[in-house]
Specification:
385 residues, alpha+beta, Alpha-Beta Plaits, 3 domains, two-stranded antiparallel sheet, 10% strand, elongated, disordered N terminus, disordered C terminus
Length: 385
């Protein structure tokens, strides 16, 4: 069974999940899950299979949906949590139907966007083909006109009457000028058209790159953008000795917030935390969604002590509670975070500096949470590299 699932593609995983939701026969390679088992065990087996299929869908998101991958995986994790927690059969059936409907809608969106990207590429190729064909045609006509003019002028050279010779040469020169002007106008028109297409494609590519480097929920840079920026900051520091500090922030007891208030409120908490960190950042610095409830902060501050002070100030600005209304009355949620900071040291790699910041963050967790701790590179290790 596991091998069969591992071979499944994204669409196939969706289809298998759909088959489960409408209680169609289980695929042949999965029959072993349900044969000769009591109804309760069969239900557990099917739930386990649905959970595996959802995991598989999350791991096999098509390249065309890369910029939505984080958002899709978040939705899938919520579905998996909901399936595990729901015990009422009626509610479970309704939940399964909703999940399948959402999967189908997600797949339709991915197909639509892929088709749109393909159409843009086809249009650009067609434009390029038109330009090449048109230029080739213009060149052929131009060459033909010039050959005809050359022949006419060779003939004119043999004329003894100077007035007739001047008339012929003037006519052919004018023909040459007209042909040249027509070719230049055609080339300018085609160049303008191609330039417009290229500019449109460049804008689309910039938009796609921006979306691919942005966290869908919070609107701040994602892990990929953070990793790229960290490498750039390390390279610059090694070259110019311009030190910087790194902070790793983790929301305290975030799972409890999701379990108590629900994932929509958990999402609002993540957005609020991101905004607090962004508001405290200086121009040129970076706040990113490092993963889950974790954030990465690149600061131009020159010491861990200064970074600790700044992030501690952010902690103080978190409100005692945040009010929300999901349609069934007003409630409130509280949150805090723990963080670790460290400053750049000569010889640091992305792994080494992140590891120190992580260790400092776990120090803060062990010391009671809702605090910022710092770590610096061991002096002896700095000397020996």
């Amino acid at each position: 069974m596991t091998a069969a699932i591992a071979r499944s593609s994204f669409p196939r995983a969706c289809r298998l999940l759909i088959r489960l939701s409408v209680e169609l026969p289980v695929p042949t390679q999965l029959i072993e899950l349900s044969l000769h088992q009591p109804e309760t065990r069969r239900a557990h087996a099917l739930l386990s299979l649905a959970d595996q299929l959802l995991f598989l869908i999350g791991q096999n998101i098509p390249d065309s949906a890369a910029r939505h991958a984080a958002s899709i995986r978040q939705k899938i994790e919520r579905w998996r949590d909901a399936l595990r927690k729901e015990e009422d059969p009626t509610a479970l059936a309704a939940l399964a139907r909703q999940i399948v409907a959402d999967c189908e809608a997600m797949l339709d969106r991915i197909r639509t966007e892929a088709a749109a990207r393909e159409a843009e590429f086809v249009d650009l190729v067609q434009t390029l083909r038109d330009v090449v064909e048109s230029l080739r045609g213009d060149a052929s006509k131009f060459d033909s006109d010039m050959a005809r003019s050359a022949t006419a002028m060779e003939t004119a050279v043999a004329l003894e009457d100077i007035h007739e010779l001047r008339k012929v040469l003037t006519r052919e020169i004018n023909t040459f000028k007209v042909a040249l002007a027509e070719r230049q106008a055609a080339e300018a028109k085609l160049t303008d058209r191609l330039t417009s297409q290229v500019q449109t494609l460049e804008q689309n590519l910039k938009k796609v790159r921006a979306e691919a480097s942005t966290d869908a929920l919070t609107g701040i840079p994602n892990r990929g953008a953070f990793d790229l920026a960290l490498r750039e900051w390390l390279t610059r520091a090694a070259k110019d000795r311009r030190t910087f500090t790194l902070g790793i922030i983790d929301l305290d007891d975030f799972k409890k917030i999701n379990d108590t208030h629900g994932h929509p409120v958990g999402d609002r908490v993540l957005i609020a935390a991101a905004q607090l960190l962004v508001d405290a950042a200086e121009p040129g610095e970076m706040v990113s969604r490092y993963g889950g409830e974790e954030f990465g902060v690149l600061m131009s501050l020159t010491s861990a002590a200064k970074a600790k002070a700044r992030l501690t100030d952010v902690l103080r600005r978190i409100a005692p509670s945040y009010e929300y209304d999901l349609g069934d009355g007003k409630r409130s949620v509280t949150f805090t975070f723990s963080g670790g900071v460290t400053e750049w040291a000569s010889g640091d790699t992305p792994e080494s500096i992140v590891k120190r910041a992580d260790e400092a963050m776990y120090d803060a967790k062990r010391m009671g949470k809702h605090r910022i701790e710092s770590r610096t590179r061991n002096f002896l290790r700095t000397l020996v590299g």
